[in-house]
Amino acid sequence: MDSTIAAVLLLDGIGNGAVYALLGMAIVLVFAVTRVILIPQGEFVAYSALTLAMLQLGRVPGTVWLALLLSALAVLRELWDGLRTKRAWSATGLEIARLCALPVAAAAVTYAASGQQWPLALQGVLTLILVTSIGPLVYRLAYQPLADASVLLLLIVSVGVHFTLVGLGLVFFGPEGYRTPPFWDASFAVGAVTISGQTIVTVLTSALLMGALYLFFARTLAGKALRATAINRLGARLMGVSTEHAGRSAFSMAAFIGALSGLLIGPTTTMIYDGGFLIGLKGFVAAIFGGLASYPLAVGGALLVGLLDSFSSFWASAYKDVIVFTAIIPVLLLRSLTDRQHDDDE
Hints:
- By secondary structure, this protein is mostly helical.
- It has one domain.
- It contains 14 helices and two strands.
- It has helices at 3-34, 41-56, 62-85, 89-113, 120-143, 151-173, 197-219, 221-231, 233-238, 243-265, 276-289, 295-315, 320-326, 328-338; strands spanning 187-190, 193-196.
- A two-stranded antiparallel ribbon has the order 1-2.
- The chain is globular, with a radius of gyration of 20 Å.
């Protein structure tokens, strides 16, 4: 390996690591707020890339029907809960509107735009809105009824949600793979190395989103409410913070981050209906480096995962995933020796 190849692999690792960093932060966020290990995080990535690909082909994305299906199920769930708890019809209608207004509107606009040749940027924005709106619906249907369950039970539910979304992805998108066009197709020569515009877009977008998340949690009331829920769910509830709203907000942000990651990685990877799982799993490895609690360590772990993925694909491409996932073993061993807190947190 000469210096040119090393530089190319380094750039590729940084680009992939930026995406893994976003996914790792999303997994840390959801776990901190809801105690859910979000295994289906990768499905948001796959749905986003496939939705944009369908729009580019002038076809109706399967995400439209998925959003409508989940909205219908959420309506039935709210009606059932309203009857069971004898809640006022006005409150039930308001809750239904909060849950379903955005996904139904986004699905309608996406359906209308599927036969139009909109600019790539507008199609990307529409994809972000549609996929993001699915996040709260997933939380409402699968996780909110079990919000006070144990972490183990929530993990089992998360595995079930993953397989359900993968199966729905096969139904709505089919088995074919697709690749989306880059948002910036320029290239820049730096010595013997060529940097693609898409890599620059990926790194800059990831950095800007991380900065925006820092400001959100540090400066806004909604961000502080999520932080309070992450620190102590019972205390936050006693102070008037709705843990249900916090859970939906966390899933909305995770879905947005997953959708954005799908747009960023779509031009460099051929995406199929279950292709997001492996990408999300590498984001989970990054979150493990942060102990599912530290955002900076998760970002550092993501960059390490990206570099391991890139260099191992050169040295031993058949075992690159094995090398990446094996890297968490010493991290887990170290944490098992240093972490003395065994009690299940509230």
